[in-house]
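User: For my dataset I need records formatted as: sequence, then structure tokens, nothing else. Please produce one.
Assistant:
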Amino acid sequence: MPILVTGAAGFIGSHVCKALLDRGDEVVGIDNLNDYYDPALKDARLARLTGKPGFTFRKIDIADEQAMDGLRGEGIVKVVHLAAQAGVRYSLENPRAYVRSNLMGHIEILELCRNLPNFEHLVYASSSSVYGGNKKVPFSEEDRVDHPVSLYAATKKADELMSHTYSHLYGIPQTGLRFFTVYGPWGRPDMAYWLFTEAILKGKPIRVFNQGEMWRDFTYIDDIVDGIVAALDKPPASSVLHRVYNIGNSRPEHLGRFIDTLEKLLGLPAERQYEGMQAGDVEKTFADTTAMERDFGFKPRVTIEDGLARFVDWYRSEWKGGANSA
């Protein structure tokens, strides 16, 4: 019975598809292949999956009701919902894209799950951004999250509320995962680690916000995928059918140390251009992953040094150093 993965051409989605296929699952992947960033990267991710036994891809916008209804006959029993309009800063420029993809799209996923006859479990992407400007660290699932500081964060909190309602009304088993700054090979070019790497290699300055006084709970892609798959395999078994978990490294890194590590790996200095805090941004993220560890045995394995080294190797050899060089 196939597993539906939305955002299959995305960073996390493509890695999840590969992990599921490698263990023998059937996967139906969907993505609208939009141009928020270079579609060539999305095509390259898909190329790694195309031809693998058990993989089917369809170009579908999750907010398209008719297209989503067409998936009802696929025999889908589980869904990993990762498609979304990403990026905190872009939500300041194009808020309607977030309403369409993150709100309307999430509703269409819930409606699909509600109408699948043998449905077992929906795992969906939330975000650490729901914690807003919370000062108490580490961030716990028990903390209040009703003061988002960006529209992106507000849409992710709204998704959690909609999922809770659907689990209550229709008995749909669901697990929401609040991702903390995911990074690694085949990542997103709008993320700091990619932007910094590209700029340092070109000898251009990097923008360092909040005068460098930033901490992020960077979480390597392989650890994230392990957590997603573990959660997918273990639907809620109690009367509470909707759960939300932090999934992070639980070890915040100072932005200065992060840049130092990149400089060492690249063998080049970074020209740091210090600026104030950007609208919608937060100073620190820090995941309390106690619940994820307890319920799924989640334990991040990859350090920031190893994770960045793997990204730099990929960027130089497979992305910029190979057929995708520009």
